[in-house]
Amino acid sequence: MEAIPALFISDRVKELIPRYQQFVREELIPLEQGAIYGSFKAHLPSLNALRKKAKSEGLFAPHLSEQEGGLGLSLLEFASISEILGQSPLGHYVFNCQAPDIGNMELMHRFASEELKSTYLIPLQKGEIRSCFAMTEPEHAGSNPIHLSTQARLDGDEFVINGHKWFTSSADGAHFTIVMAITDPENLNPYQRASMILVPLDNPGYRLIRNISIMGDEGEDYLSHGEVAFKDCRVPASNLIGEAGAGFALAQERLGPGRIHHCMRWIGICERVLELTCKRASSRELNPNHFLADQQSIQHGIAESAAEIKASRLMVLQTAYLIEKYGAKAAKEDISTIKFYVSNVLMRVIDKAIQVHGALGITDDTLLSFWYRHERGAKIYDGPDEVHKTVLAKRIIKNYSAK
Amino acid sequence: MEAIPALFISDRVKELIPRYQQFVREELIPLEQGAIYGSFKAHLPSLNALRKKAKSEGLFAPHLSEQEGGLGLSLLEFASISEILGQSPLGHYVFNCQAPDIGNMELMHRFASEELKSTYLIPLQKGEIRSCFAMTEPEHAGSNPIHLSTQARLDGDEFVINGHKWFTSSADGAHFTIVMAITDPENLNPYQRASMILVPLDNPGYRLIRNISIMGDEGEDYLSHGEVAFKDCRVPASNLIGEAGAGFALAQERLGPGRIHHCMRWIGICERVLELTCKRASSRELNPNHFLADQQSIQHGIAESAAEIKASRLMVLQTAYLIEKYGAKAAKEDISTIKFYVSNVLMRVIDKAIQVHGALGITDDTLLSFWYRHERGAKIYDGPDEVHKTVLAKRIIKNYSAK
Amino acid sequence: MEAIPALFISDRVKELIPRYQQFVREELIPLEQGAIYGSFKAHLPSLNALRKKAKSEGLFAPHLSEQEGGLGLSLLEFASISEILGQSPLGHYVFNCQAPDIGNMELMHRFASEELKSTYLIPLQKGEIRSCFAMTEPEHAGSNPIHLSTQARLDGDEFVINGHKWFTSSADGAHFTIVMAITDPENLNPYQRASMILVPLDNPGYRLIRNISIMGDEGEDYLSHGEVAFKDCRVPASNLIGEAGAGFALAQERLGPGRIHHCMRWIGICERVLELTCKRASSRELNPNHFLADQQSIQHGIAESAAEIKASRLMVLQTAYLIEKYGAKAAKEDISTIKFYVSNVLMRVIDKAIQVHGALGITDDTLLSFWYRHERGAKIYDGPDEVHKTVLAKRIIKNYSAK
Amino acid sequence: MEAIPALFISDRVKELIPRYQQFVREELIPLEQGAIYGSFKAHLPSLNALRKKAKSEGLFAPHLSEQEGGLGLSLLEFASISEILGQSPLGHYVFNCQAPDIGNMELMHRFASEELKSTYLIPLQKGEIRSCFAMTEPEHAGSNPIHLSTQARLDGDEFVINGHKWFTSSADGAHFTIVMAITDPENLNPYQRASMILVPLDNPGYRLIRNISIMGDEGEDYLSHGEVAFKDCRVPASNLIGEAGAGFALAQERLGPGRIHHCMRWIGICERVLELTCKRASSRELNPNHFLADQQSIQHGIAESAAEIKASRLMVLQTAYLIEKYGAKAAKEDISTIKFYVSNVLMRVIDKAIQVHGALGITDDTLLSFWYRHERGAKIYDGPDEVHKTVLAKRIIKNYSAK
């Protein structure tokens, strides 16, 4: 029977899913404990070998067009693949569709100059380099995207950037960043003050202050979140992405599909976590021949998780479909809905799984601890729950007031 | 933009929805306060006039085939119409697709003899008579469907029925009931002991003890729940529906689509209730020019309700689609999921609406009180939450244990 | 072992509790079904007989001083008795400590003139007459207590009152009301515009428009909520309670202890409801020799209810103690806390009880339906949850900001 | 006004609280970030200096009698102090009343031989050595305390211990452990099969396999959780604590007060976390002059946390009082209640605080991350929620069935 409704799944994806699933099971899951809890850097050779294997099997970069070396999947098609990849924290990385790179690829594909594309985008698409995205500032609430201090002043044919960013994910080891900076501070429209500028990270005006220690991990390389500084950082004016003043609009464009990617990845985590829960419950004996899975409270927890995961998947696929058909702007309500709904489902599913695992659940002997810690951000990044609920409600109320 | 995904909605239904919507708005809503809080019986003439109007507009009995006087909609197509009708407590009744009659129509259509069909089913389909369904017994937990005391003993070519039932909805004024009774008490398989038998209610062995007072209302006619007794109640053996001993299996067949009907009706209520909430919030002034709708807690409640309603709709339509394609048995997990998920959403949406309405919310000046009271049963009838969660979980755990 | 901490219970109360408990069990519970679901008026003779019995046993009016014919209990002492009485919806009425009369007694005791006391308060204390309190207006959100339209204009030595009130509880059959009306509309301080004025209800300027139908019941006499009108309603200026302009301040004084009374009554309901739950769970057989009470989900529901009830009781007693010692103003945070915490506990406890009772739970064959319907207002009246949470939070945040 | 009810607080404690509070604020909080997120071992000299200071101020070891070098506080008195100490993760450690040592001190004080006391207990009370407690086994569900594999066989005047334990908290650097081992495997009463035996950790039959990595931290010294092995580990038979076969009973005795200590520590964390929340909300600007604290959703979260913390404190103090007066066995229901109620409050309060802190909340720049990760175990250790709810419910149901 169809777990995913026929509308939401093409024949091609139906054929691809078991292939990705097998890859995740056979190649990625065995590596997880080492790469995630050990040194990610030390695992780069193995991971690169897997990227090659993915390429040779024609599975690499499912989100890119065939000309760009990918599979040419639509947003909706990629969504279902993204759920499979999300089952492992290595999934998106190995197939080169990990955040923040995928967002930068989408953005540059649409808005970067040909020169920037050939120098930066192509090697990024091939997985030869990595990138990052510098937007959030420690001094300002991220929930207000126009509240920024970083400035890029035009000096001749160069931008001179000064500012302080954090949660610049994967900055460690990245080749370039796209930075959001105020270029037109006097613009009367506060939504038209900022621009996006590409900065190669070997620039002497750039500094990685630290990999922020997050929930017990400083992390490294791809698995890290940088605090970075720009001090009189000079880049050619031609490094501008899109129009000057378009930073906020581009960020919105970047976030729409980005939230689909995140949500489907979260659903992948949920499925994996529910599987771990069921396995543990089925095998953990409380008394001779009486298992955790025989406890009604455990059963009900599993049922509630399953229901919420199903609801999540349908809503996210529906939203991907709407974005594809009508654009991200038209699907704004739907995007806000899935962002807060699915992130909360994710945290509940993980929390119940830990409870079922008992003492084991809080150790780093399983991935539950990793997800519990590192997905807590899901309710915060890309707009906290509170913001999305308000956005959604205002839209709805407006409809009704109009009547 | 599409509120209902294209897969789930045919062109025909797309065209029908606004027509039903208009009917509900213009014809039913103005009648509600009187018919629901006043005397239902006194409103029968108006309601019958509306049935005629529905027939003349070609909207009557959407669930029946065209030969039977309906529109020939599939289960999935009817689901979307059912949401519209659910917005008014009069909706399903006027279009003759109300429970318990719709369940009896489906059952008899598939399993009744030609004679029973011509005598009972045809006038039922035309809306000339009403029926009821006598299964639940006060002495036994309804959550265990094989726990019954009512017996039907074969005496020559007659069944002699003795037993005590309640929650025989709409018994008051009904023309016949279908009763679930033990016909083979010794069968080793407890699921094969009961049968379904049609009993015309002018039978001297049948008695309507009372319309049970439920949440403050005894109700009357269609809007009532009977407690009934069978005392040496004799009916022809040919009044058997389906096979002897098939009662439990038939009840399952009856319940599958029945839960789709209920769930879509609940979603209709949710939509109406959310609309009432938004209207009240937008118009209720707290301070000069500061409205309830400006309060963040109200906004977040609306956003959460909207998200849950959307999730509910997608899951129910998906389940209807699966039942249509693979049968109710194959969709058992999905049916259990929507039953407990949507009924809980319903109660949360109603409860929040009452809170937004303040003192008005607990009066009978709006329908909120009616739904708050009479939909509380949604978490109980057709299997309480606890049963459906356990059913679902056991199915899931079984999958994983197999691995 | 002590269910109620020793601090919170005097020796006298310890001795009184079992006596009240016995009265409730033996005298009130047998009357409930008839008086609550049948005609309250028809039960007045029986209830008056019980009041006499209460007097003869020295249990009547526990909240009044001995000179006033009561037991002279302190607020804290009365709180524990109030929990016992709350177990029956007839409890407070029979002992003449029911809202809204108890609030009026407290108010008049402290702020009424000697003349008003002798004419109105004394017969009220004796249970010879009943009263009501007219504050809420349908046109204004009750959550903003200074938003009132009812006006009382001084014309010579008379007030001329014009206005429209609802939720004037127990107006049907009451002898007088205290009405909150604007007497000084131009006062710069909006909290000093209203006054409280006593109005005898045989006044031709007063009209009981209707007993509002609430959750299915219009009710009658004490068990009713009136919508009332004042049209050029003239009363002597000396009917003023307290100072002119003190209406808001007096309302606050009235509400502080009033919330203790409500909360303890709710806890009494909770205890009774939990008892019903346990009894039903212990006696309802699912399969031979397997009872509802053996289900883990039922057990956990009972445990959660028990925990929340215990938390509620301790917080309310602690608040009563603080009010007694430091005054209602000083205990404002605590009062807000119990108001929203306990009302939510109440609704959760009742809702779980209904679920455990299954179909029976939604009938009027038990009191669960009465409480489910008529206590829903608990989250609304005397300040909705939202207001109390905001009040509490602002106080707390203020403390921290000060640092 | 009194935050803690007078019954629950002696004059002595009232005088002590501000002294402990000052110590925590001035001495401990400044050390936290380094000692908790850095190397705990490296901070031992500073912490030992603080222990000396605590001794010189007469605040050391508040739970011990004066003869033992403590303050001689009762369980109830110590509870209020424990809340203050709980505000810092260094609090209990510095005052030498940290788990698991405090539990071992209580146990040995009551049940150890004089010889064991002089050799082990006295230096433990002085803070010269640390200890641990080896009970939980990875192979068995901790929720079933009689399900153990570790055996201690008597061989002459020695026990020979073989087994595998984990979550032997603070094993790293400890001087001795008390191990729970089966000494009488054939005993018909499964609750009388295990004994407690003291094992000095320089024993060659003992091995610390690893400090388990928990939620991202292996930790070290006191801040660690060991996995340990006993292989033919020989100790004198006189190292038995209490009677042979009394292991389970002693564990119960150990856990009763232990849960008071934990719960009050959790409440201390809650208070500190709520303070951090309020400070962040008051200072974090969303728009010019509009702060997080002005958001209603933030306010309501703070109010709910405050209510739940208040409820928690009252219930725990009440339970401490009951244990003191009637013994831990009599207070079993109360102990179960606080265990599951307060641990859930704790996790909700922390989770809301993280949300209010936004991105900062998931970094290790505040202690929120430490508590979020390391207190997740609170719902698991010393009996998971599910077990305590079942225990409580069965007790309650039993009462009602008896009626």
TrEMBL record, chains A, B, C, D:
The keyword Hydrolase does not apply. GO terms for molecular function: acyl-CoA dehydrogenase activity; flavin adenine dinucleotide binding. Residues 132-233 form the Acyl-CoA oxidase/dehydrogenase middle domain. SUPFAM superfamilies: Acyl-CoA dehydrogenase C-terminal domain-like (SSF47203), Acyl-CoA dehydrogenase NM domain-like (SSF56645). It holds the Pfam family Acyl-CoA_dh_1. Residues 245-396 form the Acyl-CoA dehydrogenase/oxidase C-terminal domain. Residues 15-128 form the Acyl-CoA dehydrogenase/oxidase N-terminal domain. GO terms for cellular component: cytoplasm. The keyword Oxidoreductase applies. Its cofactor is FAD. Keywords: FAD, Flavoprotein, Oxidoreductase. GO terms for biological process: fatty acid beta-oxidation using acyl-CoA dehydrogenase. Belongs to the acyl-CoA dehydrogenase family. Homodimer. This is Acyl-CoA dehydrogenase. It comes from Aquirufa rosea.
